[in-house]
Design a protein that fits this description.
Elements lengths: L2 E6 L2 E6 L6 H8 L18 E4 L2 E4 L12 E3 L12 H8 L9 H15 L5 H7 L11 H13 L1
Helix pairs in contact: 2-5, 3-5
Length: about 150
C-alpha cells in the first residue's frame, strides 16, 4: 500500500492507504477526526466539506492519495487556543444547527465562502453559495443568519 503524508489541522500525519481510500475515510478511520461526516457518498450533501490547501473540498469523493503533501483543515482544526472560530461561534449564537449532522460541513463551506467573497455577504449570495450543502432539519433561515454574522466577525 502506498504511504501518504500531509499536514492535518497543523500536525504532520502519515499513513498507508489503498489507492481507493477516500480522504474522508483517511480522516475519520485512520486519524480519528470524526467531525467530518459522510452523508451521501456522492458529493451532494456537503457534510464532508474540509479545506485542502485553503479551499473547500468534498472529502467523500476525493482520494486520499491525491492529497499527499496537502494541508488539510477539518472542523476540529478551526478553533484556536480553546476559542471557537468566529463562524463556529455564530452558528452557536444564531442557532444555525438542529441535529448537528450537517453543521461541520456547513461551517467549513461558510468559512470558504467568506475567504473567497469577503465579509459583506447578502442573503441571496449565502443561499446560492450553500446550495451544495443540505440540511434536512432547519429550513436554512438560522444558518443564513449565522453565516452572515460569522462573516462579519471573521
Amino acid at each position: 500500500m502506498p504511504a501518504i503524508s500531509m499536514k492535518v489541522n497543523g500536525q504532520a500525519v502519515c499513513g498507508e492507504v489503498e489507492g481507493r481510500t477516500l480522504l474522508v475515510e483517511f480522516l475519520r478511520d485512520k486519524l480519528g477526526l470524526t467531525g467530518t461526516h459522510v452523508g451521501c457518498d456522492t458529493s451532494q450533501c456537503g457534510a464532508c466539506v474540509v479545506h485542502v490547501d485553503g479551499k473547500a473540498v468534498k472529502a467523500c469523493t476525493a482520494l486520499a492519495i491525491a492529497h499527499d503533501g496537502a494541508e488539510v483543515t477539518t472542523i476540529e482544526g478551526l478553533a484556536q487556543n480553546g476559542a471557537l472560530h468566529p463562524m463556529q461561534e455564530a452558528f452557536r449564537e444564531h442557532h444555525g444547527l438542529q441535529c448537528g449532522f450537517c453543521t461541520p460541513g456547513m461551517i467549513m463551506a461558510a468559512v470558504d465562502i467568506v475567504n473567497r467573497l469577503g465579509k459583506s455577504l447578502d442573503e441571496n449570495t449565502i443561499r446560492h453559495e450553500l446550495e451544495g450543502n443540505i440540511c434536512r432539519c432547519t429550513g436554512y433561515h438560522n444558518i443564513v443568519a449565522a453565516v452572515k454574522a460569522g462573516a462579519a466577525n471573521m
